[in-house]
Amino acid sequence: MTRNIISAALIAAAAFAAAPSFAAGEADYNAQFPAAVSQRSRAEVTAEANKAARDAAVSVDAKSRVLPEVKSALTRTEVRQAAVTANRAGQLHTGELSF
């Protein structure tokens, strides 16, 4: 019983001893990492991003997870008509147990 009280008291004392170092800013973990230095200005990066968004000519490289846009052979109305036909024929699955 006394071991539990002593260990609880030691843990509490350690917590109280560590608390002021965090409050005073002595435990500054950000000082461990160097600041990032950019070669370009913020305006240059913003202009490049806006140009890429406008042109939509960002090429997709082999390492990217972004897939290129897929061109469909069907129009939007043809796809909708096929969906209506499949729904009327009962070919569309609904509910949790349909799969």
What's the helix and strand layout?
Elements: H1 2-23, H2 42-55, H3 76-88
Overview of this structure, please?
Helix content is 49%, strand content 0%. The mean pLDDT is 77. The chain is mostly helical and 99 residues long. It contains three helices and no strands.
Give helix % range: 40-55%
Indicate the proportion of strand residues: under 5%
What order do the SSEs take from the amino end to the carboxyl end, as H and E?
A: HHH
The residue ranges in which pLDDT falls below 50 over 5 or more consecutive positions are none
Count the DSSP helices: 3
Task: Write down the overall mean pLDDT.
Answer: 77
Alpha-beta content class: mainly alpha
Instruction: Identify the overall geometry.
Output: flat
Largest sheet: none
The N- and C-terminal alpha carbons lie at a distance of: 60 Å
Radius of gyration: 31 Å
Number of strands: 0
